[in-house]
Amino acid sequence: MNQRPTIAFARFSAPRKGSVFVLSADEGGLSDAAKACDPGKTLERAFPVAEFTGKFAGVVEVLAPEATSIDRLVAIGAGKVSGLDDYAWLKLGGTIAASLRKATDVAVVLDLVGASPSGKDAASLAAGILLRSYAFDKYKTRKDKDEGKAEAKKPAKITIQTADPTAAKKAFTDAEAVIDGVLLARDLVNEPANVLGPVEFAARAKELEALGVKVEILAEKEMKKLGMGSLLGVAQGSPRGARIAVMQWNGGKPKDSPVAFVGKGVTFDTGGNSMKPASGMEDMKGDMGGAAAVTGLMHALAARKAKANVVGIIGLVENAVDGHAQRPGDIVTSMSGQTIEVLNTDAEGRLVLADALWYCNDRFQPKFMVNLATLTGAIMVALGQHYAGLFSNNDDLAEKLTAAGQATQERLWRMPLGSEYDKLIDSKNADMKNIGGRYGGAIIAAQFLQRFVKDTPWAHLDIAGTAMGSPSNEINQSWGSGFGVRLLDRLVRDNYEQ
């Protein structure tokens, strides 16, 4: 894997070597601390030539600037200081990471005309650097010809100079816990399916015990005893078996009901007997993006020692094809006792979640449940890849999720639910069927899930367009985005911690 930068914080001091990054606000010019890094005033001359005004994420670079011994001097536009919220600092960190190149000794001067960046701002900038620096290259064996040089093998050492390095370090400890959760989710989504099947995924979840998470793994024997015919029906065509990982973080008061997150973990989806087209099927290694997000979230909460009781449950299966695979027209009995006519074996994620949601609700009686799933292509038709679909039976929960999405820019758009859609999954042969016709596919999938949550406040996030193959941006260049970890951490942080 690519080497992760190391980050430290220090007080302002004009660097004498390496690469130096300074910030310039929109039309504000350079601060005194930034000017101290440029005694030859090279940036002052370069700005008008490059038509640089400090516009957000603009970049001007000077190599070997005169009157100093540093290698590179880079100015990053910070835009208007009034617009520098948490996400803007993340993006500025990402912009810096994109401009690092092969620098190994880096100083970032975090000072601006018209603003006094806080320790939290410095931590967000550092978090953005880590998010943008991520790359999944663990299986690449051919090296660039320059990588034989010793300096190319070293991770960058980045020192962020700030007015209050102690506060920045404290805030970064918290922020880094969340970033590590995001990167874990990205790793899981990016892994090929021959490496990460249900058993291997369950083992990765089990590793969270090192952080104090209580983890139980249910195998097929236990699931059969619980009556999880819906989930097991999806898994029966694969020799790799099925697992449910139950993760508990108990950071709140002992008697407080937990909040719960449930993830779809289809480690590879052929579509089963209702097989997908060959073109693009390789992307179905990412059909466990919901389970990855829940696992990453549990890592984040435990690593930052969140003061809340949280349950994470992931249903792990492989939807494969062999002589034992589920057939269109099969009828299965879910843990709830409700029967399901499986008309399309490629509508399998909802079958996995049906049993996982019922189990979660029945065992833990949580304050609410939020499930995440790369569930339907229909949500991408409706929303593209910049918003995830939000379906909920509870307005308060929906509003809190939307607010958390706006704060983190992992944005959600609420979609409708209603009895008119519910009728479309009534079946002549069972209590329900798993598809409902050509139109409103994402809504129908949500209506299906709603039949397994009783009256518990619940939300379903359809992240098919945002968890994998989503558009690159300042803080993510990876195919697997880790979508949902920052969003749900913010939900818990803002509303449910003591």
Principal-axes geometry comes out as elongated
The CATH topology name of the largest domain reads Aminopeptidase
CATH architecture of the largest domain: 3-Layer(aba) Sandwich
Figure out the total of helices: 16
Largest sheet: 8 strands, mixed
Question: Strand fraction band?
Answer: 15-25%
Mean pLDDT: 96
* CA-CA gap between termini: 38 Å
Helix fraction? Answer: 25-40%
**What is the count of distinct domains?**
2
Question: Strand sequence of the main sheet, in spatial order?
Answer: 8-9-11-10-14-18-15-16
Radius of gyration: 25 Å
Q: Which key features would you list for this structure?
A:
seven-stranded mixed beta sheet, Leucine_aapep/pepB, metal-binding, Peptidase_M17_leu_NH2_pept, Aminopeptidase, Probable cytosol aminopeptidase, alpha/beta, 16 helices, 498 residues, 34% helix, 2 domains, Leucine Aminopeptidase, subunit E, domain 1, 18 strands, eight-stranded mixed beta sheet, single chain
Write a structural description.
Keywords: Aminopeptidase, Cytoplasm, Hydrolase, Manganese, Metal-binding, Protease. InterPro entries: Leucine_aapep/pepB, Macro_dom-like, Peptidase_M17_C, Peptidase_M17_leu_NH2_pept, Peptidase_M17_N. The structure is a single chain. The protein has 498 residues and is α/β, with parallel strands linked by helices. It has two domains: 141 residues, Leucine Aminopeptidase, subunit E, domain 1 (3-Layer(aba) Sandwich), CATH 3.40.220.10; 321 residues, Zn peptidases (Aminopeptidase, 3-Layer(aba) Sandwich). The chain has 16 helices and 18 strands. Strand 12 and strand 13 form a beta hairpin. The longest helix is centred in the middle third of the chain and has 26 residues. The mean pLDDT is 96.
